[in-house]
């Protein structure tokens, strides 16, 4: 079944996109009214995007993409789900944001965008688990960047899949995460049950992410491991004043998310 991962995951996310568009979790009316979906640490680490071209890989319904557009970036969002892309295009029209959204899986991006290059490639927040081959992904990222451009990745830390439901015990092997097939009737938001319920996911150790990027010629400028996450993954987590979830200070802290920036360092020859 894992060899059919792309079809299974696309069908599942097509189904999810329809549920997500009507969910309170994604709150599209609130977004249309001006809400920003980017996290504070992301905007601080990426910096000023005014006038810069930004490619968002695995953009889902485009709220993060359009949040960068509201901050002045010229944005292109890519996702393999046609229903998600239709929603993203509708959102862009509703808020009057100049944005382009393209339906494509990550590995086909070079062909889908005709080899176009960008100042920034942005991705993350639950994206990498849907990709089986990080080496190939990193090459796509590197080829999409102008010389001196950078990737910004914000992701859930792979340690979160190792801990048990209590957040204290070790329940899974850190290196055991290849092609896991799951069958769940619901998505992570409110809404109806899904009709396409089978997915295939991969857990990527942090070292594999960094190694793939280095192998593609990118220079990692920082790797930050964060003791917070975006939802109450474990019962011991508490929401703080910034809206993120942390373990109380009296218990051992573990990384729950990470972020990194990696810059294109290859100098391509000028066209003759």
From TrEMBL:
Domain Methyltransferase: 55-149
Swiss-Prot/TrEMBL keywords: Methyltransferase, Transferase
Molecular-function annotations in GO: methyltransferase activity
Pfam family, one: Methyltransf_25
Keyword Transmembrane listed: no
GO biological process annotation, one example: methylation
InterPro entries (UniProt xref): Methyltransf_25, SAM-dependent_MTases_sf
Keyword Methyltransferase: yes
The name this protein goes by in its record: SAM-dependent methyltransferase
Gene source species: Nocardiopsis aegyptia
């Amino acid at each position: 079944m894992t060899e059919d991962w792309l079809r299974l995951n696309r069908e599942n996310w097509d189904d999810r996109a329809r549920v997500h568009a009507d969910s309170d979790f994604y709150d599209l009316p609130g977004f249309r009214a001006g809400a920003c979906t980017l996290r504070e640490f992301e905007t601080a680490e990426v910096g000023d995007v005014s006038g810069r071209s930004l490619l968002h890989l695995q953009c889902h319904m485009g709220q993060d993409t359009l949040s960068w557009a509201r901050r002045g970036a010229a944005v292109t969002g890519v996702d393999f789900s046609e229903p998600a892309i239709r929603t993203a295009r509708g959102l862009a029209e509703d808020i009057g944001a100049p944005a382009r959204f393209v339906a494509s899986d990550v590995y086909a991006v070079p062909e889908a965008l005709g080899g176009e290059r960008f100042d920034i490639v942005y991705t993350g927040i639950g994206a990498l688990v849907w990709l089986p081959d990080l080496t190939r992904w990193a090459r796509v990222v590197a080829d999409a960047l102008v010389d001196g451009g950078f990737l910004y990745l914000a992701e859930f830390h792979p340690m979160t899949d190792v801990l048990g439901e209590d957040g204290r015990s070790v329940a899974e092997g850190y290196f055991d995460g290849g092609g896991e097939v799951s069958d769940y009737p619901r998505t992570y938001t409110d809404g109806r049950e899904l009709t396409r319920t089978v997915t295939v996911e991969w857990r990527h150790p942090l070292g594999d992410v960094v190694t793939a990027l280095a192998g593609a010629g990118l220079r990692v400028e920082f790797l930050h491991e964060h003791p917070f996450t975006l939802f109450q993954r474990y019962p011991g987590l508490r929401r703080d004043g910034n809206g993120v979830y942390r373990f109380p200070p009296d218990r051992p802290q573990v990384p729950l998310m990470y972020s990194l920036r990696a810059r294109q360092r290859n100098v391509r020859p000028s066209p003759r």
